[in-house]
Write a structure and sequence with these properties.
This protein is an alpha/beta fold and about 675 residues long. Helices cover about 45% and strands about 15% of the residues. It folds into 6 domains: about 5-105, Rossmann fold; about 110-150, no CATH class; about 155-235 and about 245-295, no CATH class; about 300-370, no CATH class; about 375-575 and about 655-665, Alkaline Phosphatase, subunit A (3-Layer(aba) Sandwich); about 580-645, no CATH class.
Length: about 675
């Protein structure tokens, strides 16, 4: 078989049974490629997670069709062992054929606990390696080493000196690879067998991405001093006292050819930051120049040029993993920031390149979404991929630590590029803050009533059809989610309308001795956006002004001082668009947004599309059947022609990939 998926997909022949029950303890059916394959064969999937939500989807979407005599190929997926299928409702057991899949059948020679800890996206490389190397029966440690070598390209026996270790860590953290803790521990164990890395804090650097980049950032000025000294008489000045917050060797081989290739990208993408140096004029003419601060406009145009080069070469393909788009979106956000900061200083050719790149990104992302977005909805919540995964992701943490207190701050309308502005402002006021950055997908259409509500409900919008046009039910949905997790009403806080004025209501709500979970909506950025006439650059400017005011810093202090784990996210981003004309649909549209129109039936939507042939008709993925979206064309809005606006509702990278940031204090 060419792929591990074939073993599963061969069981899905259409028209064999209208209902298939699958025991899937390892979540294999929820992997993106499998989901796509199952859907291409005409099957629809419903995960059986809780009785009530399942019953609603099952009765409303399928039972009624069967009663009308229609055939459907429905798959009900239960995340448990085959023996547990008998626990399903009787009417399902009567109607369905039964299947069961698990990783032990696909990787019979490898240690089951080691394989189950892997991200499902890593199984391709493992299956390929198993086929090629036929390893025979392997125990736990041998499996860990097999996986490290063939999936993550880490051969512990080849890591003999600092440059080897740096290369391994750079590749891992630059790509944002998620490696299970057991594999990290095995790797560290093997490294510790030689004395080469006795002074390295391996337990921190191997698993903690932010700590690793802080470790590099602290040592970069030291390396620059050494580089500058090479050009002088060769006499080294007395060692400067360097205050390093992360232990480990002081000098790193940044100039090693395996390391240099990464260093350039890290400065270009803003993961590392250039630093001033007394010999900046000399150093800026060498390869280290990208990491040396000189004149701001030169620095910016040099970074922008390199970023565009890098992004042009790395637009994810149509069958890319969602994590590839997350990585791309981070560089894209940096590009938007650089291109709008003193846009008048950008040369015409660079402006043209950005425009062309924008068109490629918009087209590539839309094509990817039509193919892969439906598969994201039911992915496991750890790590979270979509906004409605967040409550289950947080609940998992509370399950692991019964004393944990968690706050989720939803900054309505905050795009990834605007997060970079906020981060800069927060860090300048409080250098002790640490940001662990991830990203998640907003819902399509990227509207507050759809996407923010899904965030607090912890479920897809199909489960709240009656409130999909409003956000009034958020407090009840948030409280209901946590009640299902066993929390009492007085342990759950929800507050909205934050971002201005005093913090007394927040302080009062959090001071309740029982408060354990807080959902906080900060709507200041959304307000800025709806009054914005100065485009993206104006957004950056206003968001920066707001973030520099005490409000957000004080809110974070309040939460951190009270022992909350703090996560910050957004329900959707925004982008600058140009009017393509208003549809004259009278009262037939349920919602008339600038970037999206919502219709109760396909015929009405089709009529409006005739006038706007480039608009996109979006299916009802995870949405109620009568919630049909017509999305404005790329970078356009349903407003007066040529009018410019900043809005949301569509499917650009800027609107759909939003920040998810864990914020804490260094050393805590």
């Amino acid at each position: 078989m060419s792929s591990w998926r074939d073993q599963i997909l061969k069981e899905f022949t259409p028209k064999v049974a209208r209902l298939t029950l699958v025991a899937d303890p390892d979540g294999l059916l929820l992997e993106e490629g499998i989901l796509e394959g199952v859907r291409e064969r005409g099957f629809e999937l419903i995960p059986f997670e809780d009785h009530i939500a399942f019953r609603y989807a099952y009765e409303s979407k399928f039972r009624s069709r069967w009663d009308r005599g229609e055939h459907t190929d429905l798959v009900v997926v239960l995340r448990s062992q085959a023996s547990d299928l008998s626990g399903l409702p009787y009417d399902l057991l009567q109607a369905g054929r039964r299947l069961s899949f698990n990783l032990g059948d696909i990787f019979p020679n490898l240690s089951y606990p080691v394989v189950t800890a892997l991200d499902r996206g890593d199984l391709d490389a493992l299956y390929e390696a198993q086929k090629r190397h036929a390893p025979g029966q392997l125990g736990d440690n041998a499996t860990k080493e097999f996986v490290l070598r063939h999936v993550f390209e880490i051969a512990p026996e080849l890591v003999k000196q600092p440059s080897d270790l740096l290369r391994v860590l750079l590749r891992r953290h630059y790509r944002g690879q998620r490696i299970p803790a057991d594999l990290d521990n095995r790797f560290i164990q093997l490294l510790r067998q030689s004395n080469a890395f006795d002074d390295w804090p391996l337990e921190t650097l191997v698993s903690d991405r932010e700590a690793f980049f802080a470790f590099l950032q602290e040592r970069w000025p030291i390396f620059l001093d050494l580089e500058a000294a090479k050009g002088t008489s060769g006499v080294r000045e007395d060692e400067k006292p360097y205050g390093l917050s992360i232990d480990g060797p002081v000098e790193l081989p940044f100039d090693h050819h395996d390391i240099r290739v990464y260093i350039d990208n890290l400065f270009v993408e803003g993961v590392l930051h250039s630093v001033p140096h007394e010999h900046a004029d000399t150093l800026s003419r060498t390869w280290v120049g990208i990491g040396v601060r000189t004149a701001p406009i030169e620095d910016r145009s040099r970074r922008l040029g390199k970023l565009i080069d890098s992004l042009e070469a790395s637009i994810p393909a149509e069958d890319a993993k969602h994590t590839d788009w997350f990585h791309f979106a981070r560089g894209w956000a940096e590009t938007i920031l650089l291109a709008n900061d003193q846009a008048e200083a950008i040369s015409e050719p660079t402006g043209e390149r950005i425009k062309n790149l924008q068109a490629q990104v918009d087209a590539g992302f839309a094509a990817w979404l039509f193919k892969r977005y439906a598969g994201l909805v039911n992915l496991p919540p750890v790590p979270p991929v979509m906004l409605h995964h967040l409550p289950r992701f947080l609940a998992r943490q509370m399950g692991e630590d019964r004393t944990a207190k968690i706050a989720l701050i939803v900054v309505d309308g905050l795009a990834l590029d605007q997060w970079l502005v906020v981060r800069e402002a927060l860090a300048s006021k409080q250098p002790g803050l640490r940001f662990r950055e991830q990203a998640v997908f907003a819902w399509i259409p990227s509207l507050t009533s759809v996407s923010r509500q899904a965030t607090f409900a912890g479920k897809a919008p199909i489960f709240f059809p009656n409130s999909i046009q409003t956000t009034d039910k958020e407090p009840a949905l948030w409280a209901q989610f946590w009640a299902d997790q066993g929390l009492m009403p007085n342990e759950v806080v929800y507050l909205k309308g934050l971002g201005d004025g005093g913090l007394e209501p927040v302080s009062e709500a959090l001071s309740h001795p029982k408060a354990r979970v807080a959902g906080l909506v900060v709507d200041k950025v959304d307000k800025i956006m709806h009054g914005m006439e100065m485009g993206t650059a104006g957004m950056h400017n206003q968001v920066c002004q707001w973030a520099k005011q005490p409000y957000l810093n004080t809110l974070l202090d309040l939460l951190l001082d009270r022992g909350f784990r703090v996560y910050l996210t957004s329900d959707h981003g925004n982008l600058e668009a140009e009017g393509c004309g208003r549809p004259f649909e009278g009262a037939v549209a349920d919602l008339r947004g600038e970037r999206v129109r919502i219709y109760p039936d396909a015929a009405l939507r089709g009529k409006v599309k005739e006038r706007f042939p480039a608009a996109l008709e979006w299916g009802t993925v995870g949405l109620p059947e009568d919630y049909l979206a017509l999305l404005a064309p790329a970078r356009q809005a349903f407003v007066q022609e040529k009018q410019r606006t900043v809005s949301h509702g569509g499917v650009s990278v800027e609107e759909l990939i939003v920040p998810l940031i864990q914020i804490d204090r260094r050393g805590e």
